[in-house]
Design goal:
The protein is mainly α. It is 60% helix and 2% strand. It has a two-stranded antiparallel sheet. A two-stranded antiparallel sheet has the order 3-4. Strand 1 and strand 2 form a beta hairpin. The chain is globular, with a radius of gyration of 21 Å. About 12% of the residues have low confidence.
Length: 422
Amino acid sequence: MSLSRLGGVLKFDSVKVSQCSALVAKLWGPCIREVSTSSSNRAVAQHNSKPDWNRAVSEAEKIVGYPTSFLSLRWVLSDEIANVALHLRKLVGSNHPLLKTAKNLIYNGKNNMQAWGLIVLLVSKAAGHSPEIPDMEQDKAAGVLHSQRALAEVTEMIRTSHLVHKGLVNMNTRLGPGEPDDMMFGNKIALLSGDYLLANSCTELANLRNQELVELMSSAVRDLAEAEFLGERDEQNNPLPSRPLPLHQREEASEWDCILSPLPMSGVSGCMGREWSARHVLAAGALLGKSCSAALKLAGHGQGLQTQGYLFGCHLALAWQAFLDLEAFSGPEPAYFSLVGAPLAFTLEERPELYRYIEAGKRSVHDVDYHALYQAVLEGSGIEQTKHLQNEHVTRAREVLEAFPNCDARTALTNIIVAMLP
């Protein structure tokens, strides 16, 4: 099975986390409220998308029984998580990235972490399960298996542990007075918290007693790690796009064979569209797609439907990422935006001379002239091409859903997809 269709969507060569409990907000709220954020950008995002999105997610959560976030009481009340919440308070006033990650865990919104667990459960319910599955393994009320619900929690834990680990700060760079102590302390919390979540996800996964499932989800963790080594990086490991290559200098694109094999990188570097797809398949699509595929494996479905589940997760994740990339250009000009987003990728493809602005950020992305790049994106066709890209992935995701029986879970998945559209 090949993922070449994912790259073919482009014209050139080529979870949210569910609502946390009030207890979480009580523990972490004082820390998060003091994080420096752009209130105007948040207001724009909420005004444009929040109502329909919240309604779609709320209805979907009712279908699978209850909110799916692993941040339930059994996690929040553990000694480890309680200690993390207390230590986070000591970071208030610093600029450690861990605070921003914690904020995204608490506050809802389509602009925050994706609802990976909810998607996995909806796919599980939409596909149903084999009649040979014993009754004791079924959650009759929700219409999913207990093992599928455990897998949904594992998916969210892996996703969150990866985001927490990404918050580590490079201590070898120049820091201001008093910053080293704060950054070192924040790094310890980020490292240990991420390890705790990843270790628990491995334990939960092993408890499912399915070696093929463990291998599949382990390959998703590998993909997350590989995403951090794709393309250029600044000194703090923030991603930068590669220099666009002329057509005659590009390598021939290789087929993206999956599910277990590593994603071939031939023809990726310098081809902005394929690089965007590869980056976000590795960083998001692989985990969501393989989790959906694993859920169908647990239900006793054949390889064909498992492949459809994988493709659905990949297309949904890429459509989601295209939406997030567009948000920076849907309101007032932001101070910063993603340098590896699709609108800028299309713009660099059209105007390679703009890469000089990217080169200025080799030490730090804060040295980039964001205003000049922002204006270049607005003047070009990058935004329209990104909208087309998003629509293509939305269409592909909806086509895959046709392989599933018509039911309320499939309708909920469709509503979530539609809620992403501009």
